Amino acid sequence: MRLSLLFRLRLFLSRQRSRVAAYIGLLLIAALLAVLVPLAFQRAVDDGLTVGATKTALTWTGVALALGLFATGAGAVANAMGAEIGARVSEALRRSQFDTITAQPYAFHAQSKAGAVISRLTRSPSAAQNLIQSVFGTLVGQGVLLILAVAMLARFSVTAFVFVLAMAPLFMIPFRVFNKRLFAAGREQTAATSEAEHFLTERLNVEGAVTRHLLHSHPAESTAFAAHAARIRAALVHRNGSFYGSQFVTSALAALGVAGAYAAGALQGASVGQVVAMAALVKLVYDPLVLISIQGLGLSGGIIELERIFAVLDLPRHQLAGRRELDAAARRLRFEQVWFRHPAPGTATLPDLAADAPTVGEDDWAVADLTFALVPGRTTALVGPSGAGKTTTALLAVGVHQPTEGRITINDVDLADLSPAARHRAVGMVTQDVFVLHASLRDNLRLARPEATDAHIVEALRHAQLATLIDTLPQGLDTTVGDRGFRLSGGERQRLSLARLFLADPDIVILDEATAHLDTLTEAALHEAMTRHLTGRTMLVIAHRTSTIENADQTIRLDHGRIAVIHHNRWARSQQNLV
């Protein structure tokens, strides 16, 4: 399983084929030069440490120094190139994960812990980058050095060669003993860190700060975070204990190997230079064995994160929209025997991303058997008690939810068959909870229409009764509105959402409590602006205030997700008969 994960990286490494080839080439050059250094020192000792051979000693010492410098330089360039390859692969993994996550249905995000998802996009690829560098820089680079050093050692002493080969398998003992412990500790550390990141994501924002001050929850939150920190610390201690235990064993084995090389040289009557070269070569054999053994254990963290990355990439990419376009402006929106039930908790996400949620029964339909049509070019009011399914119905109409059964059509085309752009042009919605970026006012508005000019933006703000806001902000449209728009009032945030709607200019408009946070005068002015700007649009309005829906051409009352009654005025009934 772990080898298969590394094998899957080939798809990402193949895009870096030329860099990988150059990287491996530099590793080979560095290894070859490093093996030649002991041979140069042998000549310096055997040929240079005699009377009158000072020049020879200095020459071979200079050769050894030059070889060492070139080997170090090639290794440094290789490491830099390996870091770039790892960074590029890490970037590709992040982008692939992001595309996969954003292609998931609403249920995935509703069931997932935001902090855990963010960790998957930020921390996991970085660990994968370290894994890539370890695989190439240590396992490949040191592996080549090991082979060359063993081959060169055979030239000097068969005894030392046999002793080194006999010792080599012992370096697998720490790996076998500590491997499972490291993976277990690594998974616990990853899980603990993910939980802590989710805890911080929920609390370290503007809304979390306000809640802390209102409820005086500082002590409780400090205690809760201390528990998360303690769990991370315990996992780190466990993992580090296993890691450094293995490091001690491998280092002790390496020291024993070097001593054996000196003994072999003494027994066979080797020259001083040969003993020096043999000792250096043995070190070049055991250093890679130590590094490979330790790095093999160190790979556990990267492999765990790689498992988490590919778990995301293996999520099915649900087709949230088709490719069809509308031949004319959208006017007719119809529900045809639509049933919708939220997926059971944990079924739409990964187990380690899942947030706690109540169990959903098989008969727990959010909406059931909805069949109705909006009045083309007119207003339909959707009313009912809290929990009746009004917002769920609106989210179905814009494609955030997809029907479990039945279908929704716009101009007789199934909503699921429309392209994202066509759906965006056809239907737009203002929600109860306004999403505001920690960005400029301009960037927040351009979410609805990226190509919008400042003139378009100012016009949309004027329709939303927000034109005067620009004059009060220090940098006008360039003013950053803060985390979740904390620099704006609740009413201003709601009107910002309406300005986005005006900017997007959809054919069908859905308003879900769009004026709930506004005072009476602002609401009246905004209704006048909407009446003037949205005349002739097909509208679905959800509201509790009678003033918002008293002039609706059709009223649909929901009760427990089902239609209780549909009321048409005389004009609306005549229009219904025409569609």
TrEMBL record:
Q: How does it sit in the membrane?
A: Multi-pass membrane protein
Q: Which UniProt keywords apply?
A: ATP-binding, Cell membrane, Membrane, Nucleotide-binding, Transmembrane, Transmembrane helix, Transport
Family to which this protein belongs = Belongs to the ABC transporter superfamily. Lipid exporter (TC 3.A.1.106) family.
Q: Name one GO cellular component term.
A: plasma membrane
- Domain (ABC transporter) spans 333-579
Q: Which residues form the signal peptide?
A: none
Principal subcellular localization: membrane
Give one Pfam family.
Answer: ABC_tran
Which segments constitute the ABC transmembrane type-1 domain? 21-301
Single Gene Ontology MF annotation: ATP hydrolysis activity
Where, subcellularly, is it found?
A: Cell membrane
Where does the source fall among the domains of life?
Bacteria
Q: Which residues cross the membrane?
A: 20-41, 57-78, 131-154, 160-178
Q: What is this protein called?
A: ATP-binding cassette subfamily B protein
Entry-linked InterPro entries = AAA+_ATPase (IPR003593), ABC1_TM_dom (IPR011527), ABC1_TM_sf (IPR036640), ABC_transporter-like_ATP-bd (IPR003439), ABC_transporter-like_CS (IPR017871), P-loop_NTPase (IPR027417), Type_1_exporter (IPR039421)
Q: Which Gene3D superfamilies match?
A: ABC transporter type 1, transmembrane domain (1.20.1560.10), P-loop containing nucleotide triphosphate hydrolases (3.40.50.300)
